[in-house]
Write a structure and sequence with these properties.
heterodimer, A: mainly beta, seven-stranded mixed beta sheet, B: mainly beta, 56% strand
């Protein structure tokens, strides 16, 4: 199985901050990576696919980059609605997720 | 707008079968891939498996022998069965639609809100 490792596990930030979350794959996955936002009691939301393609309707402050084994999700200016847990997911070989990064209000 | 809603018992006894249904509205299950994903308390997400609109299925090898995913096109529903459950199967279970290239499912673009299933006697 391809293992996905996210860092940090928890991130404290303020509204307006620029934040970056990293996801590393245990082997190369080309650009077959997606990012999701999860909030308790709500349907998870697809943000990014194919490493850097923004899903329709997702604000442009979200961006993704990377290829091979290292990827990042960046939020350029945090909004109150962005405090949530973020997961990466590889779809190169089967489907596995990172362990999540909880974005908290500082 | 596609909407997915999971339903089923919130409590299942050990060794019994967990059964959940996903009602899909705003779109037909006669296209795309339809998945189940779970999240044990305090843990990450685990893909369980999918059914393609053609009826073909693909399951996570770690659960393969205990899982069945089926579809009822007349009701626009997808179902999940996990047999011989243990406490380790306690989780929030999500239904999700996925897009992909021809012959290859990729990522999940619509999800339900999830339903908590607890395995306990």
């Amino acid at each position: 199985d391809i293992q996905m490792t996210q860092s940090p596990s928890t991130l404290s930030a303020s509204v307006g901050d620029r934040v970056t979350i990293t996801c590393r794959a245990s082997q190369s996955i080309s650009r077959w990576l997606a990012w999701y936002q999860l909030k308790p009691g709500k349907a998870p939301k697809l943000l990014i696919y194919k490493a850097s393609s923004l899903e329709s309707g997702v604000p442009s402050r979200f961006s993704g980059s990377g290829s091979g084994t290292e990827f990042t999700l960046t939020i350029s200016s945090l909004q109150p609605d962005d405090f949530a847990t973020y997961y990466c997911q590889q779809y190169d070989t089967h489907y596995t997720f990172g362990q999540g990064t909880k974005l908290e209000i500082k | 707008q596609v909407q997915l809603q999971e339903s089923g018992p919130g409590l299942v006894k050990p060794s019994e079968t967990l059964s959940l249904t996903c009602n899909v509205s705003g779109g037909s299950i006669n296209s795309f891939y339809w998945n189940w994903i779970r999240q044990p308390p305090g843990e990450g997400l685990e893909w369980i498996g999918y059914i393609y609109y053609t009826g073909s299925t693909n399951y996570n090898p770690s659960l393969n022998s205990r899982v069945t995913i089926s579809a009822d096109t007349s009701k626009n529903q997808v179902s999940l069965e996990v047999n011989s459950v243990t406490a380790a199967d306690t989780a929030v279970y999500y239904c999700a639609r996925a897009r992909g290239r021809p012959g290859k499912m990729e990522f999940f673009d619509y999800w339900g809100q999830g339903t908590l299933v607890t395995v306990s006697s």
